[in-house]
Design brief:
heterodimer, A: about 575 residues, alpha/beta, ABC transporter transmembrane region fold, Rossmann fold, six-stranded mixed beta sheet, four-stranded antiparallel beta sheet, 12 strands, about 60% helix, B: about 575 residues, 2 domains, 21 helices, 10 strands, about 10% strand, binds adenosine-5'-triphosphate, binds magnesium ion, ATP hydrolysis activity (chain A), transmembrane (chain A), ATP-binding (chain A), transmembrane helix (chain A)
Chain lengths: ~575, ~575
Amino acid sequence: MIDRRLFKIPGIWPRIMMIALLTLVQAVTIVIQARALSIAVVQLWELKPLATIVTPTAVFVVSFLCRHLITVAQNRSFYPFVAETTGKMREQLMTKLFRLGPSLVEKTGTGNMVTMALEGIDKVQTYLMLIVIKIMDMGITPWVILLYIAFMQWKEAAFLLIIYPVIILFMIILGLAAKSKADRQYAGYQRLSNNFVDTLRGLGTLKQLGLSKRYAGNVYSVSEDYRKETMATLRIAMTSTFALDFFTTLSVAVVAVFLGFDLMDGKIMLLPALTILTLAPDYFLPVRNFASDYHATLNGKNALQAVLDVLETPETTDRDELKQLAWHDDSSIKFDDVSLTYEDADQPTLSHISFDVHGFQKVGIIGASGSGKSTLINLIGGFLTPDEPGHISLNGQKLPHLSQETWQHNSIYIPQAPYLFHATLRENICFYQPDTADGQVKAACEKAGLTDWIAELPQGLETMIGEGSRGVSGGQAQRIALARAFLDDSRKVLLFDEPTAHLDIETEAALKEDMLPLLDDRLVFFATHRLHWINQMDYVLVMDHGQLVEQGTPAELAGHDGPYTQLRAEMGGLHALD
Amino acid sequence: MHSIKQTFAHDTWVMPYLRKYKWLLVLVLFLGMMTFLSAAALMFNSGYLISEAARRPGNIIYIYVPVVLARAFGIARPVFRYSERLTSHNWVLRIVSDFRKKLYQAVEAKASAIKQTHQTGDILSILADDIDHIENLYLRTVFPIVIGWLLYLFIIIGVGVFSWPVALLMALILAMIVLVMPLLSVAVNGTREFKQKQIQSNFYTSLTDEVLGLTDWVISGRYNDFMKLQNKPIDEIATLRRKDHFFQWWRGFGVQFFFLLAVLTLLIWSGTFFTASKGMANWIAAFALTLFPIVEPFLEVSQGASEWPVYRQSIERVNQLSNDQPQTVAQTTLTEPVSDLNVNHVTFHYPDDDKIILKDVSLNIHRGEKIALLGPSGTGKSTLLKLLLGDQKPTVGIVTINGTPVSELQQQRAQLFGVLDQQPYLFDTSVMNNIRLGNLNATDDQVKAAVAAVELKSLIESLPDGYDTEVQESGTRFSGGERQRLSLARILLQDAPIIVLDEPTVSLDPITERQLLDTVFKVLHDKTIIWVTHHLAGIDHVDQVRFLEDGVFDMQGTPRALYRDEPRFRKLYELDTGKRS
Ligand SMILES: Nc1ncnc2c1ncn2[C@@H]1O[C@H](COP(=O)(O)OP(=O)(O)OP(=O)(O)O)[C@@H](O)[C@H]1O
Ligand SMILES: Nc1ncnc2c1ncn2[C@@H]1O[C@H](COP(=O)(O)OP(=O)(O)OP(=O)(O)O)[C@@H](O)[C@H]1O
Ligand SMILES: [Mg+2]
Ligand SMILES: [Mg+2]
């Protein structure tokens, strides 16, 4: 029920103490309230005039109001702390997301990540509010009441005391069963939201496969599975509430009957008996409240766990090893026997990669599909961490990985499938440098071959693009990403993962003219399948099945018989028209 | 009230279910009411019991009935409550599954347009919020309010049996709790909760956008901007929520206050009313205690009411989504095999855009013919394919298969077309399941054969989980070219007469590309193929090449004729082979 990490939240202890104090005072008002009401009733029962109950009634009113004012006070004093804590938690979560980058999202799923940051945190907030106050209530109020009852009538007090552990025992047994179910249910919920996002993102594909209508059944069945899991959890939770309800209500009934017999035997007077009867429900109230919020608490606890787990995911450390970096003519980057294994793979995807490039070289990366080009680019961009630290060095400094802030701030990365934000065309282009002068933006568009297209758009650069707005063609998306790169002169390292894959040859040829100057005075890693680019490269890495099988200048590679010449020869034979 | 009527005027999400399950609903309400009545009766009975016992009647028989009743009520309450909760939750969750399906169907009907009008985050937020909201509408608003009102009536009538003036007074006091405070809540808090939800749903959308584009954020290093985008909505939500909570706490106190007045009324009234004899006075304790268990449902009434505006928005939103469905054309089916596909003088521009993309384009493809479609990026190749498939309607002109317009063949399209578009999607499930989507009846061996045809057999079989490897969200487990080929395998399995390929070999290296094209054209030798490509590898496989530029076909012919006669084609060819740069 309680996550231990809860108590590690800074500043929580003083609040707990304060809540405890308020709860104690509240328990006293509950006793006074019951006593005063009973006095009034007994006076009337003895057929005394109404005037005699004025004082007890006034006391009853005051203590009743105090009791509920204290509830407000508890909430009011605790809430700011909770709000601040969860606010911070959300911030940390987002920071974590930013730090861990896409690898975290790959693992948790987009839908899930977003839900966690929004609903998850809200659930945590509810949880924190509930758990501390309710636990204090459970820990203090019943005992004050019990103590008071014991003063009047030890037998009833003993009964109430004995029944309490029985109730708690039931709660624990059922709670344990519910917990494992609830964990499963939470997983079910995650699957559900990911499944739905997944389905929506692939709706176009489903439609083309003629399955979109049938898939409704899938949505339904995933949802039904979730319902069944939820019901299973709820049933347990409800059974536990039922057991609790049953015992508490019945206990009140039993107490009433006990009291009745005692009264008949003259062992007790009406006043104490009535007081005990009035107090009996309040004795059980805290534990009942706790149980009725059990589900909310369980959800909150799971959410808290999920959030804390993400927060505790080890970050790539040492991201600031590299103090300063300005890429110069004489800078160098060296891979010395670098290997990389994906988390769930049993074989390294990249093995024993060694190369040494320096200054403003243009490095082409070629190789068959699946040979590891994108992986290598991702490694260079710092989105992946090599298996062992210390095999990469920059300007002679050994680094654990390239997820160095300074390095990343020096690089521009165009992925194989660039993402367009739901924003204006300008914002998309100026993504790396939001406040760029108009002229520069236009120049970048010109170089990326977008000008004609933009001129046709009624709103020009201010057109909204991306998901949920105007469609753009595959090649246009890629050119927008290229324009981003054209815009930024300060970043001297370019990582291109097939930037022209979606372009036709003519557009590519035209674009190439503009791109070539961009590549000057920069360190470029350029993964491509279009071999004509190789003529413009200074250095070529040939990948095959995760290994760097050949490297050198294009002339060197062409000069001797190796994988590169084979590749070219095979390709030469591919075209059969001439 | 007016707003409630409006909301439900064209509702297909709430009312039908209420009607469909009305007896179950009655049962839930009955059980809910009985729960609290038993609780009240228990206290009532116990108060009487001990007062009577305190008179020390000579014989136990005098208190026998209350003793038995005490036990009975003590058992009845939890039993009622348990059954109420089980029934209501089960019912609501079942409805929710229907909702999800319905929401999906509403979205599906608009599939081709949905990407332009809704963002993923939008729909995600509909899923997460609206559905939950409708669920809560029942559990937190409808049930508690109705139960609260029933109890209210019961109390008034119960007191009214003894004294009408007191009943009237009670009616007024308790009306504060079950009528005035809920209305006040809707007025004061409702707008706040509504606003909060609105901000939240926008936030959903923008956050999803941020997460999907995370790579770019990370490399941009714009940490502060990244955080700033969220701070504003978060702060706004926090402020609203703080006010919301404060209001709720004080409202809770208010309910207790009026409740106190009701208790006092009963106490004083019974103190003056039951004074005729000692026996009568036994009822005083009963009346004084009986109300206490009822405060709980009363507290829920106001809360339920104040959530109404939020639910209303959800109901309206889902209704809107399912009501404005695109117009559908009457569908027919083709029974004879496809003989020709005809694009007849088609002119096209996107509805929200006046740039003419295709100008009076005509194209006739016979059965078994293979056509390559080339052209600069952004001229409208993919658009032409959308027209062929019937995803878009020509502005002028018509597209037909065997003379029947494609718009009338939409139900049959999966039997007619196998399509690989520019962004094929892999679902977050195993390789086997993903490929089998092409043909749900395919055997494992057929799936494996398709995988072998796209040159992935050795890779997949070398993985620890083989064909059961999970591809992860949108296929990230595989490289760009591998994803492309997995999607292609799906099409090979589909076995439709017309195959539409939009750049199937993008992100493939030339050798794999060549091998793949050879296989594709071999496997699909008897099909009609329309193939969009950006370069000329494998072009010798087709019967016809068409160049689309500025909305018209400006070069066409067989590949060999073009190579022979068109210098531009030759130049492209050389660029492509890397002989020229
Ligand atoms: N997240 C992952 N987990 C495990 N294996 C992966 C993961 N991502 C990629 N791989 C595997 O690593 C290998 C190299 O992938 P990579 O994306 O680097 O290829 P590539 O050379 O860029 O290919 P392409 O030209 O098709 O884009 C592939 O076989 C792929 O299946
Ligand atoms: N939904 C849309 N609304 C308005 N314009 C659109 C929409 N989708 C695409 N366009 C525009 O229509 C033109 C043709 O797009 P299309 O996707 O057909 O090009 P394409 O020839 O396939 O290009 P590529 O080779 O780059 O994929 C482009 O200018 C594009 O911006
Ligand atoms: Mg790749
Ligand atoms: Mg296209």
